[in-house]
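One example given next:
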Amino acid sequence: MSKTTTDTSPAGRAPDGADDQELGAAGSQLSTAPQEDAPQLPSLGVVGWARWFWRQLTSMRVALLLLLLLSLGAIPGSLIPQTGIDATKVEDFRQRHETLAPIYDKLGLFHVYSSVWFSAIYILLFVSLIGCIVPRTWQFVGQLRGLPPKAPKRLTRLPAYTTWRTEAEPEQVREAALALLKKRRFRAHTAGDAVAAEKGYLREVGNLAFHIALIVMLIAFAWGQLFKFEGNKLILEGDGFSNTLTQYDDQKSGTLFSPDDLEPFSFVLKDFKGTYEATGPNRGTPRTYEADVTYSVGAYGEEKKTTVKVNEPLKIDGSKVYLVSHGYAPVLTVRDGRGNVVMDREAVALLPLDANVTSSGAVKVMDGYRNAEGKKEQLGFNAFFLPTYGGKGSTMLSRFPALINPMLALSAYHGDLGVDSGIPQSVYQLDKKNLKEFKDSDGKLFKKQLAIGQTMTLPDGAGSVTFEGVKEWAGFQITRQPASGWALAGAVAAIFGLAGSLFIQRRRVWVRAVRGADGVTVVEMAGLGRSESAKVPEELGDLAGILYERAPGAPEPDPAAPSGPPDTPEPAAVPAERAEKK
């Protein structure tokens, strides 16, 4: 009976003697991975050590180690506040950890991704991957240009093997085998008395594509970090924005970014609409945030209308305009002690504190105000706004994020706001160092709750504040991230390349057909894979079954007759069906 056998020995192990060398050559070059030679000390001298260091750096082992170090190095960047992301949190961390902060400064942990040690790992990984991939790519190109190696002398030593006798001519068997293997998409050719075939080159293509994709991702990441730009802008309904550095509330950019790289465009926020869940367990959860804007590109560009939604940015050349936040801005009119208007229906943006948009901020009257005595002063108000007030006696927290029952609470101060000192200060906070409190009749801080249309009259004829209405504002983030498309393409290619290298097996098949001593053709088939797998004997059995149909078996030989040609194993009996697997 015919047989397909599997050998438990490794596929690349060669038996003793000359046949072992030939089998080793047949199993060679199933991949482009560099061979691990026995360790040898480099020759003395600079050149020898440089060569040894280069071989170590460009080994796959070192590349994987550097990739692991890069992943570990990114962990502090996620756990520790970063100056490039939130400088305020970094300063807060310094104040709370006076001992730990100097250590973090020396280690560069407040700016991990631009630190010397992270950059060193990044560059070494980049060099290692290139030094590893380039020679492997050229080696693989050479394999594609060559032909599968000829069959070993003793096919019985291969992991998967089958044989039978047939009355067909050896040339006919080899022609049938060649046609069959090519039909199964093997690269096949006739070499001597056997057909050599190979399949599964996409495994190595996937392997190389995965590593090349990593290089593309590293380049794209570096390019994006060097030339990136990100800025934020809070815009009231009816106000506009022009894409220049002076227009941003805050911004950060890469090392090689230039203001000339900003795309020339502008837009105006016409209207903001937000809808929320009115009932159920998700009451108050935003359903839609939409900002209607008109924009134009260039100094004389045509105005166009569009709607910016969450995760649906406005794309202008290389920039994207994202809608990232929303809030309210009470509209106030302030009069001085003589009744003169010093702030005429001006909207003051407040920052949300919770999901129901309970908001706080500061109102600053910097110019034109005179107190009851006619003396120039400045006014400051701490403002607390609730879009949906629960009514008298309820907590000072909004019940719902929409404007249902708006209420504004103000506490009043007068004096010097400190805006002329030259020291930057937040527009959302009062610097009370040189401010005095307005006092009520009980000698406490003067404050009042206002509904729309109500007025707060300041003590001692100091003036008044009228709550005229509410505008909405939208927060936009304008980003410029070059090479992001390359990074995405690299990530997709890496996934497909890794899948190909894991699920495609590179294997070889040989079919030998020679005439035996009794004149009957002996057919031998053997297969070899890069690693031990049940797929090789299964595929060999399938091929042997088809070839057996085209070259059917011959009767059993006479036991007294010679067993066959020299160095050929004794042929097995004719298979009654497709080759069995063992």
Notes: Residues 48-140 form one domain. The chain has three domains: 48-140, 149-199+505-550, 229-480. The chain has ten helices and 22 strands. The longest strand covers residues 319-335.
